[in-house]
């Protein structure tokens, strides 16, 4: 009889529910580290965001900033801190390669950090003025040195102000890749936040819930995922960020982990304890996870659009909007997850000089040539809460 061995790579991103049954249909209880909450030095920054030792200093703002959403958990930021300002730079050593050839997603992540820092300013006694670096992302081909993205000018207030509600959500905000409860309506307060973001004259949020428009968005995400898997350079640049062992997590303190993949408890246990399999199986599992669990269970898909996808200030602005929406989701009990594969294919086509097939496809989804989609997400009531991902130490993000 041919033997069969389950492996970690086969389970990575698959997220399927697995049970281990014994005679009579009982479930065998399993215990082990796979069921423990993520812990260790790589997760310490989640407790530093409002530490008393940093209160009232510029570093308190940075401690909040490093907990922001960002692409593939690359944490692509560096900070140069003084008493009067905080410079934010794109750490190009943490670049996603062909997945983000124009640093568009990187700048969106930097915008997310800026939003956290803006929320942290008043309760730490600062007024904040944000100066975004102007220009286009398109010429940013240099990958050898950090790239200046914005400067936050700090002005001391007479006293600390009350913390905005979203500030309290900073340590609670985590990307949720589990299935959602498709039949449950999203809270009116959450929709109000979306409406506020969309009211910005320089940004718009398109929502898709049912009907042929929603089906077209879902198909675009699935087919873009297939295209990325078929592109050896793109999928290779993505795979190098995956962390499938505790030693890798502690070493790199970044990247997607098994704990954050949305796997069931038993699937997670097997994924952590069994050996690796060829990458193709994990890629197929990612496609299945995207199509059959993430899209299939999400009651709503949203697209954040700007007037110029490759404007550096617009990318930062989109990131700030996404961070606000994600924090508001944490307060409202709503789970959210980026699904940016179609936008990554737009970038890839532009990089390779191909016909803009994906560009036209996204324009058809929004029905507007005036708004360029730059960020796609799903939202819903979560079936499970999401754990935190690892984070780089505060000191590792500071420049002299």
Summary of the model, kept short:
The chain is of the alpha+beta class.
Biggest sheet layout: 5 strands, mixed
Count of strand segments: 10
Work out the strand percent.
15-25%
- By CATH, the superfamily of the largest domain comes out as NADH Oxidase
Q: What order do the SSEs take from the amino end to the carboxyl end, as H and E?
A: HHEEHEEHEHEHHHHHEHEHHEE
**Helical stretch tally:** 13
CATH topology of the largest domain: NADH Oxidase
By secondary-structure content and strand pairing, the structural class works out as alpha+beta
CATH structural architecture of the largest domain: 3-Layer(aba) Sandwich
Describe this structure in words.
- The chain is an alpha+beta fold and 400 residues long.
- The chain has two domains: 41-168 and 389-399, NADH Oxidase; 173-382, NADH Oxidase (3-Layer(aba) Sandwich), CATH 3.40.109.
- Helix content is 38%, strand content 15%.
- Helix 2 (58-65) packs across helix 3 (104-120) and helix 12 packs antiparallel against helix 13.
């Amino acid at each position: 009889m041919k033997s069969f061995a389950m492996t970690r790579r086969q389970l990575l991103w698959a997220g399927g529910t697995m049970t281990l049954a014994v005679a009579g249909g009982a479930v065998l209880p399993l215990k082990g580290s796979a069921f423990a909450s993520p812990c260790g030095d790589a997760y310490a920054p989640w407790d530093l965001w409002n530490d008393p030792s940093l209160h009232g200093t510029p570093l308190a703002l940075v401690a909040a900033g490093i907990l922001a959403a960002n692409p593939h958990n690359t944490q692509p930021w560096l900070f140069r801190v003084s008493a009067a300002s905080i410079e934010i730079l794109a750490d190009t050593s943490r670049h996603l390669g062909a997945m983000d050839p124009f640093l568009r997603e990187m700048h969106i992540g930097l915008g997310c950090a800026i939003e956290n820092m803006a929320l942290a300013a008043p309760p730490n006694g600062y007024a904040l003025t944000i100066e975004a670096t102007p220009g286009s992302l398109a010429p940013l081909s240099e990958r050898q040195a950090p790239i200046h993205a914005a400067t936050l000018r700090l002005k001391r207030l007479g006293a600390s102000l009350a913390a905005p509600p979203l500030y309290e959500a900073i340590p609670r905000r985590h990307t949720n890749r589990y299935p959602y409860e498709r039949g449950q309506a999203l809270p009116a307060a959450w929709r109000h936040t979306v409406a506020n973001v969309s009211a910005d004259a320089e940004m718009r949020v398109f929502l898709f819930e049912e009907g042929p428009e929603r089906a077209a968005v879902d198909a675009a995400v699935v087919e873009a995922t297939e295209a990325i898997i078929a592109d050896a350079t793109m999928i290779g640049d993505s795979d190098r960020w995956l962390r499938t062992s505790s030693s890798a997590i502690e070493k790199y303190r970044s990247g997607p982990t098994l704990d954050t993949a949305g796997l069931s408890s038993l699937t997670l246990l097997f994924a952590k304890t069994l050996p690796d399999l060829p990458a193709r199986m994990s890629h197929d599992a990612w496609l299945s996870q995207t199509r059959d669990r993430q899209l299939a269970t999400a009651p709503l898909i949203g697209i954040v659009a700007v007037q110029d996808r490759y404007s550096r200030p617009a990318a930062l602005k989109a990131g700030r909007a996404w961070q606000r929406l994600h924090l508001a989701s944490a307060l409202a009990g709503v789970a959210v997850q980026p699904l940016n594969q179609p936008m990554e294919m737009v970038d890839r086509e532009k990089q390779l000089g191909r016909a803009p097939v994906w560009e036209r496809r996204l324009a058809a989804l929004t029905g507007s040539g005036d708004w360029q989609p730059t960020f796609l997400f799903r939202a819903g009531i979560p079936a499970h809460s999401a754990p935190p991902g690892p984070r780089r130490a505060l000191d590792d993000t500071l420049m002299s």
